[in-house]
Design brief:
InterPro entries: BUG (IPR005064), Bug_dom1 (IPR042100). This protein is of the alpha/beta class. It contains twelve helices and eleven strands. Strands 2-1-3-10-4-11 form a six-stranded mixed sheet. The longest helix has 30 residues. The N terminus is likely disordered.
Length: 330
């Protein structure tokens, strides 16, 4: 009887383990059955994140052997797409390609975002980092941040607005840091995405903006806007002549924003591994790496554990900055 009582829990544990393994294999088989994979994007078609998703999706389709459909659920800085992911079955048919704002920043600046990345999502893998940058438009002759600050003081009475792609985003906090450091009154002008903000910069409706390198790089190369500062511990490879904010005397701006792929919590590990392996193969393709690099990304595959650590550290860094700024959640 004693022996039987000891064995039964072991048998139950083995049974549960076999059941979970079988469930994972079943879900993996379903993911391989030809059913399309939805790759959610929280921004509109034509935006930088959308272009990245379509570049990866086209190649993932070939590696996985199933259609990969980019689905734009734009709005609220990726919040809409994130809530769609949360409500999606954890069967491997829905993934979310996101950068840092939706995962690390938005839950800290919105009272009720409708999702919790720590409990609702599981990281699949990371694939790139990038930098947020300050760019000036043709409406100012400035070629450096010091020249821009001087121009604001002499031509604008020390007051100006700087465009940002979304409220309560990292660019908004960078605007405040610029204002504090240089003792000028610059205020954020929120837009619904980087595309309309950049359009206003090109039309000289606003004289400066903060967004990611991919949002500005082509117009910077064409001389239509001038990137004058970037975050990060070192200069961006595509912007070797542009100083970092750290070089300019700012602190706590060394951690780079990230791009990665997420799945609903509960997605079986074999499926997570399969997508991670597929993404690694895609990133190793020279044409993919070159295309993403020209968009201003620093390409580098990060497996699930490493990527989860990056997300955690980055979130903690910006939690301190946001709290010290006195920002009140919206």
């Amino acid at each position: 009887m004693v022996f039987s009582m000891r064995v039964q829990p072991v048998r139950r544990a083995i049974s549960v383990g076999l059941f979970m393994a079988a469930a994972g294999l079943c879900s993996l088989a379903q993911a391989q059955s030809g059913t399309p994979v939805r790759l959610l994007v929280g921004f509109p078609a034509g935006a930088g994140t959308d272009a990245i998703a379509r570049t990866l999706g086209e190649k993932l389709k070939d590696v996985l052997g199933v259609p990969v459909v980019v689905e734009n659920r734009a709005g609220a800085g990726g919040q809409i797409a994130a809530t769609v992911l949360k409500s999606s079955p954890a069967d491997g048919h829905t993934l979310f390609l996101s950068h840092d704002h939706t995962i690390s920043i938005l839950p800290q600046v919105v009272k009720n975002p409708g999702f919790n990345p720590a409990t609702d999502f599981v990281p699949v893998a990371g694939f790139a980092t990038f930098a947020n940058v300050l760019a000036v438009s043709g409406g100012t002759p400035a070629k450096s941040i010091d020249e821009y600050v001087k121009w604001v003081r002499t031509q604008k009475g020390g007051k100006e607005t700087i465009g940002i792609p979304a409220p309560a985003s990292i660019p908004e906090f960078l605007v405040k840091m610029i204002s504090d450091k240089y003792k000028i009154d610059v205020q954020p002008a929120p837009y619904r995405g980087s595309a309309p903000m950049t359009a206003d910069m090109l039309g000289n409706q606003i004289t400066a903006g903060i967004a990611s390198v991919p949002d500005f790089i082509e117009n910077h190369k064409a001389g239509k806007v001038r990137i004058v500062a970037s975050i990060g511990a070192k200069r961006q490879a595509v912007l070797p002549n542009v100083p970092t904010f750290t070089e300019l005397g700012f602190s706590n701006l060394e951690d780079l924003p990230y791009y990665g792929i997420f799945a609903p919590v509960g997605t079986p590990q074999p499926i997570i591994d399969k997508y991670g392996d597929a993404l690694q193969k895609v990133l190793a393709m020279p044409d993919v790496k070159q295309k993403l690099t020209t968009m201003g990304l620093t390409v580098g595959y990060e497996p699930q554990g490493q990527f989860a650590g990056r997300v955690r550290t980055y979130t903690q860094t910006w939690e301190k900055i946001i709290q010290s700024s006195g920002f009140k959640p919206l």
